[in-house]
Amino acid sequence: MASPASPLVSAGNNASPILGIHHLKFPTSSIAAKLAFYTTVLAFTHLPHMDHRRPGTGELFGVLLQHAPTALLVELRHNPAQAAAQRGWDAVTWSVETRRDLETWRSWLNKKGVECSRVLKGIKGWVLVAEDPDGAFVRWYCNETHEWDENVDIDDKWLPN
Length: 161
Prior knowledge:
Layout: H1 7-10, E1 23-28, H2 31-41, E2 45-46, E3 52-53, E4 60-67, E5 72-78, H3 80-85, E6 93-96, H4 99-111, E7 120-121, E8 126-131, E9 137-142
Parallel strand pairs: 1-5, 6-9
Antiparallel strand pairs: 2-4, 3-4, 4-5, 7-8, 8-9
């Protein structure tokens, strides 16, 4: 059976279809602080051979990391103004299997001194929220679900309405 045509090709555009996500890019005011957070707290691997440096000066302005289980690449880009603008914003929500996994993450974050929420009830499952060194939110949501319930946890800092 032939695979369905890409919407681009179907619309008369000869562009190749999108295959997936190449990498995510997060702004930071401190590459060192955010790199430490991603490698020691979230267990990403720094790929120093892919560091981004300015020609002529050699100034480091970006680093790439990889999440080994999924091969996902993340770039941390020095951009203090953008990092400040994204304080309190959750650009990505990571997935874990169960509510218990969220509790395990919460214990780990507490052990590492990372400020985080309690495990909060969402509409269909549970969520955990932590703050990275730039004040951006990092969220985990579990695949384990409960009955649809719009009576979710509200938290002034972590889940404002």
